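Hey,

Quick one before I head out. I ran the complex with guanosine-5'-diphosphate overnight. Inputs first:
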Amino acid sequence: MDELYCQGCGAKIQTSDSGKAGYTPESSLQNEDLLCKRCFRLKHYNEIQDVEMDESDFLDMVMSIQDKEGLVVHIIDIFDVAGSLIHGLSRIVGDHPVILAANKVDLLPKSTNKQKLKNWLRSTVNEYGIKVKDVFLISSTKGTGIEELAQTLASYRKNKDVYVVGTTNVGKSTFINRLIKESTGIGDVITTSYFPGTTLGFIRIALDQHSAMIDTPGIVNKRQMAHYVSEKDLKKIHPKKEIKQRVYQLNSGQTLFIGGLARLDFVKGDKQSFICYFSNDLPIHRTKLEKADELYANHRGELLLPPDEQTMKTLPKLVKHAFRIGDEKTDIVFPGLGWISVLGNVTVEAHSPEGVGASIRSSLI
Ligand code: GDP
């Protein structure tokens, strides 16, 4: 095949992988206006679909925005902050102002302390060296916080472009589609236009005559839990509605399994409640610490579900992270899954798939 480029976003046309930038079905190659599927859907249905790209290609691509003016909106998943932050973002985007939008807040328990959550987000992104102008808690499906964010974008961008970046699955397309629907209310402002001189896969969605919102491909992040589980298991671990807490009274020497995807050992401390916040469809199993290794070895994928058969092939081995927690209510966070809240004065060991990690924070609830 000759090298063909999408007339919308400039991505190199390919016919083999529908999830990647530049995909076009073979049957459309003869079309006079050659568009990739993503641009085609935007043009004809005003709808964005996510395509993916690996981190290094993405970095090259985003470097090209360094010499352009504009504002960056970084969408992350509130249930997978560590897995959805783009670690090198500040280095990549240079001096562009960054707004952090933490999506899917509709899934959090109502009693979540939103201010504490924002503070934790700020300090977490700081640890990753990302400087953000502002932090928003949004729900792209329910619309929570979207209007406020849109107003802030309008005031920060000063007629410049807005780049929307995020890893796959954070809800970037849901967010953009929401904004498109809201803006189409005031006329047909949506167009895709050629990005001159680039082979990017960026899509421009006109905001006004001078500037656009720019959708970038979603980055595949190897630290994302979602990356290691089957479609079926992803549905189980991704909450569908507000999560309900599940409380376990534990003595030291007991273990909680989160399906067979993660595990928390209560190593030392007085008897207390371990309050679990995970998708309601994700089973939690309590056992004795001394029996936990054996249970995991013999019953992963059976009693301890998910992982299903397919996930078993891709899920990295569990690695242990020890935390000595002082006299403060603390959340032990399993990125991409949820968290367990304890009162304090405990030593615990959190096991999570290698590369995915685990961390602690001051309790949000
Ligand atoms: P993308 O890969 O970043 O474009 O992500 P999508 O927009 O395809 O969303 C990934 C999944 O998250 C889908 O199942 C969405 O329905 C879901 N999702 C997106 N935004 C929200 C949200 O605000 N709340 C909830 N509960 N789910 C969301």
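The radius of gyration is 22 Å.

Talk tomorrow,
K.
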